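thought: fold this chain, then report.
action: predict
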Amino acid sequence: MKKDGSIVRYTRESVPKGKTDWERPRRMTDEEIEQAALSNPDALPTDFEYWQDPQVIPARETERVTLRLDRGVLDFFRRQGRGYQSRMNAVLQAYVEAQRRKAG
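observation:
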C-alpha cells in the first residue's frame, strides 16, 4: 500500500526485484555457511540435547495501542533493530511478573 492509501497490485512478471543477493549463499561452501551462522549472535546453532525437551509456547494475543514514551527510550529500543516492539513488550512483561512475585 502506498503512503497515500492507494493499493498497488503486481503480476508475477511485474513484481519489483528484491535486494537480496541470492547468488552469494549459493556460492558459499557448507563451512562458510556454518561460520556465518556462528558469527550471528541471533542465530546460534542448537545441538541434539537442545531438542530433547521441547516446549510449545503459545502465542500471546496482542493489542494495538497508542503509547507516549520518552524519545530516548524509544530511540534506545529502535537502535537494536527489528523486533524492538517485541523487546519492549518483553521488558514490560518482566516488570509485570516481578510485581506479581512481590505482591504474592
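thought: worth noting. Residues 84-103 form the longest helix (20 residues).
final: C-alpha cells above.
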